[in-house]
Amino acid sequence: MIDLHCHMLPGIDDGARDLESALRMAELAVADGITMTACTPHIYPGLFENTHAGIREAVASFREELKKANIPLELTYGADIQVVPDLVRGLQDGTLPSLNSSRYFLFEPPHHVPLPRMADLIHNALLAGYVPVITHPERLTYIESDFDKFVGVARAGAWIQLTGGSLLGRFGPRVKKIAERFLEEGYTHLLASDGHNLKNRTPELREARDAAALIVGEEEADRLVQGRPAAIIANTAPGEVPLPWGLDPEGTRPFNPSSRQKGWFARFFSGE
């Protein structure tokens, strides 16, 4: 598996607090079956003033520490980019890092206030040849009222990335329900750990991948954690990557095994 969103770099944002924690996070990732992690610290004006050069240097240093510790985890990098001035220009001139220097970049919407003219921002990035990967929309406090807006930008060409822990209920039942809706309706391109620590936000994906498989099937679940992440690493054009069924004009909804695992009586009282 490939994890394209993780805050593993030590002491650079609100992720791993020190090198020891970062190394233990890397060990967890490898034990879980992750072969490559993208270190994606926040770039958040006024809070986390990370730079492309600083992230690149931190990744190079951490690679050396992984070698010393004999931890076989391959690293690449990007950034979890909040709304910043001149977003497209920053990607073009290298001030802002994309994922593995590809056309894809992580874009983190504000958590509590809807972003005015989000569709315009996404449109401008797409026109410039970049593909915004929208991080964890299921965790936004306003997502219920703006769900259709995120579907709209996904239909326009943006990618949707869910946090694995959301599917496992680690952010509460409300977030879990929204994450399941993104999957069930066929709008999810990627799963990532968004790992921050060794407790409640670990850099693991296997359990979430298996939970997703109950909704979208095994083949699509593998695309969420392997096929599409590998396409991003290779800088594959979006048109050459299989789309989630809800965004594919010829797509059909996959069989959902979980819907067949309960009888009508259980489904009725569970609200399904």
TrEMBL record:
Q: Which stretch is the leader sequence?
A: none
Ordered alphabetically, the record's keywords are:
Hydrolase
One Pfam family linked to the record:
CpsB_CapC
EC assignment: 3.1.3.48
Q: Which reaction does it catalyse?
A: O-phospho-L-tyrosyl-[protein] + H2O = L-tyrosyl-[protein] + phosphate
GO molecular function per UniProt? manganese ion binding; protein tyrosine phosphatase activity
Q: Which InterPro entries match?
A: Caps_polysacc_synth_CpsB/CapC (IPR016667), Pol/histidinol_Pase-like (IPR016195)
> Which Gene3D superfamilies did the record assign?
Metal-dependent hydrolases
Question: Is Hydrolase included in the keywords of this UniProt record?
Answer: yes
PANTHER family tied to this protein: TYROSINE-PROTEIN PHOSPHATASE YWQE
Which family does the similarity line name?
A: Belongs to the metallo-dependent hydrolases superfamily. CpsB/CapC family.
The name this protein carries in UniProt is protein-tyrosine-phosphatase
Q: List the source organism.
A: Halioglobus japonicus
